[in-house]
Predict the structure.
Amino acid sequence: MLINGDCLCSLKSIEKDSVQAVVTSPPYWGLRDYDNENQLGQESTPEEFVSKLVQLFHEIKRVLRDDGTAWVNIGDTYFGAKGGAWEGKNSITTEDTGSEYRIKKKAPPKHTYLKIKDLVGIPWMFAAAMQRDGWYLRQDIIWHKPVPMPESVNDRLQKSHEHIFLFSKKPHYYFDAEAIGTPKKEGEGWVRKHDVWEIATSNYQGAHFAVFPTKLPELCIKASTKQGDTVLDPFMGSGTTAYVSQRLGRKWIGIEINPEYVEIIKKRTAQSELF
């Protein structure tokens, strides 16, 4: 089922305890403006962004089964990054940045402790806020990208990873470690998968550059659902979670606020039906 609309409002239309797993990647804070007043990611502070995101997941907890899990890939950003999405009299100016760090005409509002060039730390803020809201934080998985996005900086290392958090609603939940384990080279049995996943990024024509590689949701879905279960992605984007769910014999619910991406999702899921 595909829903084109605001995430929080759309979640309220989904039946209670109807979802076995959530596999999603929320928008980055301050990176893209989709020109929609209900979009997530254009909040004035990272604290406001995290608060709104946790509010959404509080509603997700209602639709998630008691033995269900939520897999959340969440990216970080640098405060005052070039091309930020804010502007106005309360924004940081070029005088605040110093002569060695020039920014474009838009910049984030001034913050109580974050400084230009600070790594914001949004994944850690989000994980702690989710724990305070009652979620069990079960795993911090490192998604290592062997060929990362190029960066035009020379005063730090190349960024090549993102976080994938595994949350559960209850202390005991469905998890099939063998489904994603590695078969032993000699004899029977399997080896449990580690918490560093090396998965190359991928592109899909017509979508933005940050497309989920199919292998990532595949691992999450196999480990946390059975055939016939329902997978939810409240930030569907280009539809990778739906595409993979369909190919694995799972039902899916996707929410996407951008009408252009809705059309991409329809095309991708139609293609998966051919396999």
Remarks:
- Residues 46-63 form the longest helix (18 residues).
- The radius of gyration is 19 Å.
